[in-house]
Amino acid sequence: MKRKALSNVHSDNLYEQIYDYIIERIGRGVWGAHDKLPSIRTLATEFNVHRLTVFKAYQLLKQNKKVYVKDKSGYYVMPENMLLIDSQQNPIISAHVQESSLSEIHQVRADYQFSIALLDPNLLPNHYFSEYIKKVFNLYPKVLGTYSSIQGDPELREALSRYFTDQSHFYLTPDELLITSGSQQAIDLIARGLIKPRDTVFLERPTYSPAIDVFRRQGANIIPIEIHPHGYQLEQVEGLMREHKPRLFYLNPTFHNPTGYTVPAEQRKTLVEMANKYQCLLIEDDPYPDIYFEKKPPLPFFSYDTAGCVIYIRSFSKYIAPGLSIAAVACRPSIMKYLLNTKSLSDSGTPLLNQKIFLHYFFSERLQKHVEKLRIALEIRRNIMEEELSATGWKWATPMGGFNLWMKLPESTPMDRLLEKSIEKSISFVPGSIFDSLKEHQSWIRMSYSYLNETQLRDGLQRFVHIYHSLTSTQI
Ligand SMILES: Cc1ncc(COP(=O)(O)O)c(C=O)c1O
């Protein structure tokens, strides 16, 4: 049998290397959910180590819920996402529920898409787009024949560094900005560039669900941090930082997805100091800062950071131009070098055409005025949603910005059947457990008011409430 080599001969971390080896293979899909893993004896022979070393690796995998044991039969891969609801009877439902992923829910076709946290395309100034495209081809006739630099178009980075300084009090140079193809790519680059298996990562609970999947795939040890309508319990966060020494804390502190909550300014300052003290990176994901309804949200964490412990991700997809998929990452040079390296393995730079169109469109007077109208249109839609649901008795905190209403339905709600029946009637929403790394929040749901027009909102919500009542009134 061909022996596998371990990189380090210090016996006290051999088991960690075997742990990493197994995690890496699970991550690549070599071993899938419920697959049987090699026996202790096989791995011990393959790696030329004592069986106890492999046993120790398996114990740690078990403890971290990466594998489970069947009596006398061996170790098996723990399914990443346990079944949310038991809906095997319905192939549409079971397809997305088993995966338990947001992207699967988004693929469900529905007339009333409350599941999509994206701007109604009718709210964008679509008629004017071609003007910007023509302008870009006139100004840069060779734009299609050129790659962007990996870090992103210098002209765009220059403009964005001035913009962030004016708007958000960031003091940075264009070299401290990286342009990515959406913030999803940025999260992925950060995870791949900075996280090794077994690193501890703090994630808000609930959180943007693809972030859970990305950090899990890296083999991170995930610790959930509760987010409340007024932020975090900082004493608890500090205790957990002291205990777990996390590598990073991924947060979405402004009009948080899915809850709509915003972390207050005082907490931002304190958390940056805390992160600095415990050497924990804060990954600030900020896709909605301009969509506020009454007053501007507090300045980003990045503006309080003097020690380089915050990585700021700003997506321009959600309400500027989803079709261009442009995001910017702000970070200090010591981090930038890792991100550039990882980005160069991911693509040859975000498409230059998209960056140039974005540059001319985003900094136009028309767009900046348009954002004011968007705020009003979305506030009206939020009000409609609250009004239509006001008689249900469901609980929520009014979102002061962003796209989503995060609601608690009664504990007794048969969530699986509610989703199934809603999809049958062409209505989609996102069950709360999808946003929870612990797969709880079973009686919560996220409904987005951003994608449907006012008439569709009213109509869809009335139908949804009707489905809910017809299900719950027939319950014994
Ligand atoms: C918090 C959060 N992060 C990241 C993303 C992904 O954004 P992008 O389209 O720029 O990849 C979203 C999209 O819904 C989001 O809500």
UniProtKB/TrEMBL annotation:
The keyword Translocase does not apply. Gene3D superfamilies: Aspartate Aminotransferase, domain 1, Type I PLP-dependent aspartate aminotransferase-like (Major domain), Winged helix-like DNA-binding domain superfamily/Winged helix DNA-binding domain. Keywords: Aminotransferase, DNA-binding, Pyridoxal phosphate, Transcription, Transcription regulation, Transferase. InterPro entries: Aminotransferase_I/II_large, HTH_trans_reg/aminotransferase, PyrdxlP-dep_Trfase, PyrdxlP-dep_Trfase_major, PyrdxlP-dep_Trfase_small, Tscrpt_reg_HTH_GntR, WH-like_DNA-bd_sf, WH_DNA-bd_sf. Residues 12-80 form the HTH gntR-type domain. Signal peptide: none annotated. It holds the Pfam family Aminotran_1_2. Its cofactor is pyridoxal 5'-phosphate. SMART domains: HTH_GNTR. GO terms for molecular function: DNA binding; DNA-binding transcription factor activity; pyridoxal phosphate binding; transaminase activity. In the C-terminal section; belongs to the class-I pyridoxal-phosphate-dependent aminotransferase family. This is GntR family transcriptional regulator. It comes from Heyndrickxia camelliae.
